[in-house]
Design a protein that fits this description.
alpha+beta; Jelly Rolls; eight-stranded mixed β-sheet; globular; disordered N terminus
Length: 262
């Protein structure tokens, strides 16, 4: 059974509002290619998704402790049946996931990042993305994987460049309404120092002492962060310092080559 989200369900007219090509005003190339979309979801949609975000009972998985500190997950990769059951109970979430997995969204994202894909992946970046299955040698099959992520006080996500099968990452933030900047929770980008591999495509473990922080994308409501997998896409979340009862919630949206695992 594949862990990818099916893209065959009908989707609504919400597609145009979620396409990225019409929303991106500026991109950054240091320390690697990324961009941010503020107020990504329509306000009413964001409020509905925030109100129906998975509860503690839904977070049945624990991320790899060697890579994350007390990160709990519900994902298409690790709990596909439970994830589908959650979507059945939460139609607003199902609609958004359907849009993200649609041919229209994947084609739009590819067109937006095509030039950067070539720089990150060589000539392979020229292969046009298609949902799930490539129909020719000039196309790249793409699978959508979605992970609900929950961090509590003191939790963190270790430094990494992402699995080699990943093409692009989209992180959508859902802070508690009372979240304060000093609690942290943002995604930190790093630049490799001389002691770190300059080409870490295989996502090998690298100590924080071998990199230098270069940019932080703060944990802000309804902010979408997009970046491409590359040999230097070092990123992490440093330990959050929120009150014990508060949660750092996000949705991690990954586009991978078929049979990849987020």
């Amino acid at each position: 059974m594949t862990s990818a989200v099916a893209a065959t369900a009908p989707v609504s007219c919400a597609i145009p509002s979620l396409l990225l090509s019409s929303r991106v005003r500026q991109t950054a190339h240091q320390p690697f290619f990324h961009f941010v979309v503020e107020e990504y979801l329509p306000p009413s949609t964001y409020d509905t998704l925030l109100a129906t975000f998975p509860t503690d009972a839904d977070f049945v998985g624990q991320a790899d402790a060697s890579k994350h500190g007390n990160k709990r997950i519900l994902s298409t990769s690790h709990q596909p049946d439970l994830f589908r059951a959650f979507l059945e109970r939460r139609p607003a979430w199902r609609e958004v996931v359907d849009v993200l997995g649609s041919e229209a969204f994947i084609t739009d994202l590819y067109r937006l990042v095509r030039g950067e894909l070539v720089r990150a992946r060589g000539l392979g970046g020229l292969r046009r993305w298609r949902a799930h299955r490539a129909l020719s040698a000039f196309e790249q099959g793409v699978e959508l994987h979605v992970e609900f992520s929950r961090l509590t006080n003191g939790s963190y996500i270790m430094l990494h460049t992402d699995t080699p099968s990943k093409l692009a990452s989209l992180l959508l933030y859902f802070p508690d309404p009372a979240w304060r900047p000093e609690y942290g929770g943002g995604t930190v980008f790093y630049r490799p120092d001389p002691g770190a591999p300059r080409r870490n495509w295989a996502n090998q473990t690298v100590p924080f002492e071998a990199v230098a922080p270069a940019a932080t994308v703060d944990f802000v409501p309804n902010r979408l962060l997009v970046f491409l997998k590359s040999s230097i896409s070092y990123h992490a979340v440093t330990p959050v310092t929120c009150p014990p009862a508060m949660l750092r919630n996000s949705v991690n949206i990954s586009f991978l080559t078929p049979r990849g695992r987020a």
